[in-house]
Design goal:
The protein has two domains: 43 residues; 219 residues, Immunoglobulins (Immunoglobulin-like, Sandwich). By secondary structure, the chain is α+β, with helices and mostly antiparallel strands. The longest helix is centred in the N-terminal third of the chain and has 40 residues.
């Protein structure tokens, strides 16, 4: 008899969990349609699917403060048609706006990767705007909680000592001219959300996070990002650029306290 009870109990629990997830997803769609969509995009129509942009994230996050996401543009970045703007929304975060990215044909590919904080079970949405003004959305549901209030790392003094240090990481020593080249930008910054408690003082630390990232090659813009508290500590962004010759890849960042930092990388042919 006991052997029969256990499977039935598990079945009921799994059913309740599935019902709760479905309820949470349905509630969020109402929040999106009745509030967030209008707040960020007004009454502009948004086509949903993955024909133009595709978002990838884990269904269940291992660490809610370090959730990896990837955004892939599905159309080439050409002067005639390209993705010029991508907005990342996390519905149930304290601040739903996570980041936005301005892109150009010089990006080569509208592909991005980063890590974010997720504070509760939620939809994560990537909304792409093409240069003709049309909007396209792809969304995923992520199970995570507490990412925005997760404790600050044990050694905040060390984190502050390396504040603003950056480096580029390229897949190869030499760039492929005329082709999209993947690059990763790593930034040292604690990205404090204003909701986190210092483990030593037990006080909530004021928000201190990167709010703008500008990337250029030989002075021409490649990508500009506006970011908020959802971006994880020590932000890193993976993006693409198309060099036409050797030159300088440059990053300029500003945080919400007004501090600015720059870094550059020489790109060889």
């Amino acid at each position: 008899m006991q052997a029969g009870i256990i499977p039935r109990t598990l079945f009921v629990l799994l059913g309740l969990a599935a019902s709760w997830t479905a309820f949470a997803e349905a509630q969020e769609e109402g929040t999106w349609k009745n509030a967030l969509q209008a707040k960020f995009f007004g009454d502009k129509p948004i086509e949903e699917g993955n024909a133009v942009v595709e978002l990838t994230a884990p269904y269940r996050a291992e660490d809610p403060a370090l959730v990896p996401i990837q955004i892939a543009g599905k159309i080439p970045q050409t002067p005639e048609k390209y993705i010029k703007h991508i907005t990342l929304i996390i519905d149930n975060n304290p601040v739903p706006f996570a980041a936005s990215f301005d892109l150009t044909p010089a990006s080569g590919k509208a592909d991005l990767a980063m890590r974010v904080r997720i504070n509760a079970y939620t939809h994560v949405r990537a909304i792409a705007e093409t240069n003709d003004g049309k909007l396209y959305m792809n969304k995923v549901f992520v199970k995570a909680s507490g990412g925005c209030s997760a404790p600050i790392g044990a050694d905040l003094d060390a984190a502050m000592a390396r504040l603003g240090k950056m480096k580029f990481r390229l897949d190869t020593d030499k760039a492929a001219l005329g082709q999209p080249n993947p690059v990763q930008l790593l930034i040292s910054h604690p990205n404090i959300t204003g909701l986190q408690m210092d483990q030593i003082s037990r006080l909530v630390k004021p928000a201190h996070y990167v709010e703008e990232v500008k990337l250029s090659f030989n002075g021409a813009p490649v990508m500009t990002a506006k970011t908020d508290i959802a971006v994880s500590a020590d932000p890193n962004f993976r993006f693409y650029f198309v060099p036409d010759k050797a030159g300088e890849l440059k990053a300029e960042i500003r945080d919400n306290t007004g501090k600015t930092f720059t870094a550059s990388q020489t790109i060889t042919e």
